[in-house]
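[step 3/7] inverse_fold.run input=structure_tokens len=365
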């Protein structure tokens, strides 16, 4: 395909394409909070939040995050628990943790100034080729490609690239194409124009070709291939995982919560004690009792079923059965605490466990 791409690029009307895209972006761009200025820190935060999350969802989180952590040093010096709390609801919490690790690195190694070269910026935690290209082009005017799934879709159509956009190694092909076409006068408007085109016009289904600023140059439109491209392999279905959750209340009416391990999914967040099980009900009770009995002297010696709740991640589904028990124990440790439901709300809690305390609030209190 690379040979074909070279041939396509040779004949492609590059200047016309660039001008149409950049002019359209400059006149039609949406007013978004991260476009207020070229502060690389603000752009960085927006790009991390926008990964796997829609613009409309991100805006209120972004505004609130910027109020809480207006500068890079505010974020670098913040407690991790506060950062996770501000991120709560956006999901993919490793993004927040990596972002904070990286801004600390910028503070320590680059005197608080976000690096402006591809080599330096790419070394920061959580900064992949897309984020690096977006920050460099938008904040510093460096002509680096910023290729995500949207840009691959748009380029697949414009240049009729038939390589599967679901295969990670094919990103290189699209980066090469963007490098060949990017505007050196205004790389920021070019990259943002591509992103905006993918979001508003060249959408996954029913692209609005009749409103498209680059329709004249678009090869898929010319050849009637708009509905055939891009080629994208199907994602694997999320794997179901059976979990039991213990809502355990002490004699003061407080609930036991535990902190998740510092690595892996939802790292360091708080939750009601949770264990993975086979689906059989009797076994669930046994596992819960075993899980907690040693430390927690359960009054009834048995958990009562409350309700079930599912939560879908990109790669797995948590199928959770929630049980209730009373305890006379008050034992706490670094990773186990007894708290009121109001105190739960002050801690970083995964959304599905928030659903649980909301249900408990309704049914138990
Ligand atoms: S003409 Fe249609 S397919 Fe081509 S870039 Fe524009 S919206 Fe996408």
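[step 3/7] decode complete -> sequence:
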């Amino acid at each position: 395909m690379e040979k074909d791409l070279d041939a396509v690029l040779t004949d492609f009307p590059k200047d016309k394409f660039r001008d149409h895209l950049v002019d359209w972006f400059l006149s039609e761009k949406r007013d978004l909070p991260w476009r207020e200025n070229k502060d690389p820190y603000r752009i960085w935060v927006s790009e991390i939040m926008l990964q796997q999350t829609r613009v409309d969802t991100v805006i209120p989180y972004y505004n609130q995050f910027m109020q809480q952590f207006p500068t890079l040093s505010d974020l670098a010096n913040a407690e991790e628990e506060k950062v996770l709390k501000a991120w709560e609801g956006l999901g993919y919490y490793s993004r927040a943790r990596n972002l904070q690790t990286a801004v600390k690195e910028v503070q320590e190694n680059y005197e608080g100034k976000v690096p402006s070269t591809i080599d330096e910026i790419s070394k920061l935690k959580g900064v992949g080729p897309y984020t690096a290209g977006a920050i460099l082009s938008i904040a510093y005017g460096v002509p680096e490609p910023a290729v995500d799934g949207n840009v691959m879709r748009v380029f697949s159509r414009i240049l009729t690239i038939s390589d599967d956009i679901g295969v990670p190694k094919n990103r290189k092909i699209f980066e090469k194409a963007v490098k060949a076409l990017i505007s050196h006068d205004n790389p920021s408007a070019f990259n943002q124009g591509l992103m905006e085109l993918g979001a508003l016009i060249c959408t996954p289904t029913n692209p609005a070709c009749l409103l498209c600023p680059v329709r004249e140059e678009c090869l898929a439109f010319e050849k009637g291939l708009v509905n055939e491209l891009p080629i994208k392999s199907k994602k694997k279905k999320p794997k179901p995982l059976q979990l039991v959750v213990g809502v355990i209340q002490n004699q003061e009416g407080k609930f036991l919560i535990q902190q998740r391990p510092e690595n892996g999914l939802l790292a360091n967040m708080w939750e009601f004690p949770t264990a993975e099980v086979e689906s059989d009900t009797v076994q669930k009770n046994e596992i819960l009792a075993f899980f907690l009995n040693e430390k927690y002297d359960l009054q009834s010696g048995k958990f009562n079923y409350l309700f079930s709740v599912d939560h879908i991640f990109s790669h797995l589904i948590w199928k959770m059965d929630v049980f209730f028990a009373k305890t006379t124990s008050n034992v706490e440790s670094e990773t186990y605490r007894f708290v009121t439901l109001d105190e739960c709300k002050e801690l970083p809690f995964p959304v599905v466990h928030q659903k649980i305390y909301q249900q408990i609030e309704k049914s138990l209190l």
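[step 4/7] annotate
The domain at 239-364 is CATH 3.90.79.10 (Nucleoside Triphosphate Pyrophosphohydrolase).
Strands lie at 239-249, 255-259, 270-271, 274-276, 304-312, 316-326, 336-339.
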